[in-house]
Amino acid sequence: MAPPKRKAKPTLPNQPTRKSARLAQQHPRGLSRLSTTSHHDPPDAWTALAEQAKARVSAYRRHGKPHEENLQPSLNAFIDWLPEKGWESIARDILDAKTDGALYAVFHNLLTALVAPMKARSRPPSITPSPLPKREENVEAVAATLETPETRKRAFRDSCFKRDKYRCVITGGTDTSHWKELGRPDDMAHGQLEAAHIIPFAYGSWDKSSDAPEHIVRAWEVLYRCFPKVREAGMQVKNINSLSNGISLRYDIHLQFGEFSIAFKPTDTDNVYELKVFPSYPTGLRPTLPEGPVEFTTAEDAQDLELPSAVLLDCHYRLAEILNASGMGEIIERYQEEWERLKEYANGSLRHDGGTDLEQILRTALWTHVEV
């Protein structure tokens, strides 16, 4: 599918008229000084900016750095698929990168500070800083807002299930535990249900005995920079367990949602989405997916519970398009798989016979520490 065309006043789907709508009017404390891009230029100037940035990307020459083959398709995909303000910010960062080393740093910052945290199965690795001083000022502003980490809460799961009628929002299948409570009806499809975070829970989790670690701070800064509406909607650490950030999904679909092989594409109707299934979605699981649109509604006894945020779902969808167009997601998957293999190989410790491949372990564990 082709990227969306640039418009004079691009807009995102409206936020649901619940708590999430009220959050959209709030700005997290301390973030008003985040550097942003001016948007008073005419549409022709926006087109020229995108073309100039892509020309700079095409001029990049490889220098033997890791994953360089993904740099050009990745940066072009960010320009094509990020929302208003987000793509302009990245385009200006690209144009500010006067050397290939600086341009590689822009790419690697997006890879380690956005793609890796959004796909991380556990604590993400350290993050490559942005090469631009103004982005470091943003990091300081974000750090001032991250006070207390969140913990996984049963209430988040229970409220998601209640709002979504104890059903997967995609397939309509009932949670198996709830199916048992209903008397195991023969005519009711059921399966293991999970409450999925749209913005991963890892964004709000760290050792509460310390301040927010640098990798968390930088991850939020890049998320806000690429998706300004996420910040404007009030999403921050304390809201990571908000119902606006949750949906009920069958366990296998939850896994694919986290892998960005399936996403909710916005439509012109509030709370109605087209299900976008990417080639990496397992073919054996596709027959259970609906062919038509997916509509989010609340159970009759849960009208006070907020629906999933249109802004957060749009963020997930756009990032899914970027990852599938660029191959960035596959980079993270390879490191995740290699890290799990190495942990199993070493069995959590070094071998006494000297057979532990320390070079491979260090290369995998410290893959974000590269010369830029």
Uncertain residue ranges: 8-29, 122-127, 350-372
Considering DSSP H and I runs of 4 or more, what fraction of the residues is helical? Answer: 40-55%
Mean pLDDT, all residues: 79
User: Which strands sit side by side, in order, in the main sheet?
Assistant: 5-6-7
The H-and-E topology, N to C, reads as HHHHHHHEHEEHHEHEEEHHH
End-to-end Cα distance, whole Å, is 33 Å
Q: Structural class of the helix and strand makeup?
A: mainly alpha
Which range does the strand content fall in? Answer: 5-15%
Radius of gyration: 21 Å
Q: Major sheet, described briefly?
A: 3 strands, antiparallel
Overall strand count:
7
Number of helices: 14
Shape: elongated
Q: What do you see in this structure?
A:
The protein has 372 residues and is mainly α. Among the domains are: 130 residues, no CATH class; 31 residues, no CATH class. It is 43% helix and 7% strand. It has a 3-stranded antiparallel β-sheet with strand order 5-6-7. Strand 5 and strand 6 form a beta hairpin.
Write the layout of secondary structure elements.
Layout (H helix, E strand, L loop, with lengths): L18 H5 L19 H16 L12 H11 L4 H11 L3 H20 L13 H11 L10 H10 L10 E2 H6 L8 E2 L1 E5 L16 H13 L1 H5 L13 E5 H8 L3 E5 L5 E6 L16 E2 L14 H17 L1 H19 L11 H8 L7
